[in-house]
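User: Please predict the structure of the protein below. I'd like the answer in structure-token form so I can feed it into my own downstream comparison script.

Assistant: Understood. Taking the following sequence of 262 residues as input:
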Amino acid sequence: QAGDTAVHICSYYLDSHNLYSLKWYKEHHEFYRYTPNEKPPVKVFPLTGMKINMTASDHVRVVLESVSTKLTGTYLCEVTVTPTFFALAETANMTVIDFPAEGPVINVERKQIQVGETAHLSCFVQRSSPPSLLSWYINDEPANEIYVSRIFEPGPHSIHGKNLAEDLQSIELSFPVTTSHFDNNKVRLECVATIAGLYWKTADVTLIQEHPKLLPSKDGPPDTPVSGVRPICTSQSCLRFNVTMILIIYNFVLYRSQNCLR
């Protein structure tokens, strides 16, 4: 892990030979050499960011202190013997892991949601080396990849009031909410960040089911008068009114006809 001390050991068997030199390389760059017949026997050619502990290093091992992710790579140990000056070499890989300072953080637009709506959530974690693997879970089941998108966002950022200079990794989740998602009117969403089986952090949020609200109808029952308007008549009064009008018209017509006959 970044900041730790790394000890590289090169084991060899000389038999009847003598050690001429022990050399250490990172990729193709020599950074440590031990030659017992020279004064001083140790020479170093450190890379940028490499801190060699001279006291702890010797003809078998080289000790690197406060390692950083820049020191990730392939290391080679080369042993040369006399009198043949035959050389043997062996390689090994070192990966320096830099974990995020904090676990993942979830941002959610709304914590109350109705069936048929689309839930939108984002999960952020600080950039690490190697990068974190982010995953979404819906009620402890992996989210379908068609609803997931992964994003890299260069810094700086502000999350929940904290200013972060680091770059961020984020994973977004957008899925249509159905009745099957809710258990006791709740759906649990979890964001998981892992690194090579060595790092595991989670964050979770619970969404509450919101039920539709029924609005009162603007139109009342058929016989209900519109507010502010008085009815002209009831059914009985309208009947009497119609009968009276018929009688008046009949009498008027009869009166005119009698005058015409005269």
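That's the full token string. Residues 224-232 have pLDDT under 50 and may be disordered.
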